[in-house]
Amino acid sequence: MPRRIWLLCLLSVLLAASGCPRHRSRWVEVRSAGQSIRFEVPAEARAGRPLELRARLSAGGAVSGWRAMVHYRTAEGWGTAEYHEAASDTELVAILPALAKSAVAHFFFILEPTEGIPAPSADWRSEDAWCGKGKERSDDGLQIRPSYEETFAVTYKGDVDRRLLLAHVLCMMGGIVPLLVAAALAAVFLRTGKFVGAMRRFVLVGFVLLLLGSVPLGIALEYQVFGTYWEGWPFGRDVTDTKSGLMLLLWLGLILSRGRWVFSRGRASGGLSDEAWAKLLIALSVFTFAIYLIPHQNLRF
Asked: How far apart are CA 123 and CA 147, in angstroms?
């Protein structure tokens, strides 16, 4: 088998890995008259533990005449936590309550004039978020949020067994390699008529790896993280679960479309010919590769 096929497939896998989750906090910065505050927006939180939200002040330390708070909403209603000094005079911390797996906390930040101190005239601006008077609170505080209508959000997740996670990743990333090899062999087969047997075997190996990674390992992993077994269609709106289920069904349909055991030669009654099957294989491989490029995290549509 040409080495170029393997090299192309491995490079494709590296590109597909870009869809793996990146749990990094983002920072939202607001500035005014030489002062600045950077608020942390975490990517996730650990279930059952209080969540620390950090804020970093400009090098001069405290922001004169203003105090920072975070206004949050959980299933129990709205609450407010004030930022206080942490390890240094340039870092603040606010504490959000501990929540269960899959619970979501919606929040936005507030800069409020300090009681008893006339608020300095400051024009706070941000290139990362919306700043202004919001609708949830009618006080003098300035709200920092994604937009006037939206709030930031963080999902609480359970701890994951690293061995289970490693097995899941190896099966999912290892499964795409045989499928891409099969697509390359299908293209060669359409031109030369060669590698038809190898093409079928690679499809079967890739499907088995995807099945293992998605069903027993993926479901067990989701239960550890979110406390649920399936959040995709038709029971939920989780994109990761839905795309995994769709991908498995399409590959299973391709395997069964020959009308006989995938290793068998020739065409069964009512089944696809090898040429039609190879074309469908190439199309489905491209679709699967596109699916892998979608960020692998629990999104809702």
From this structure: 18
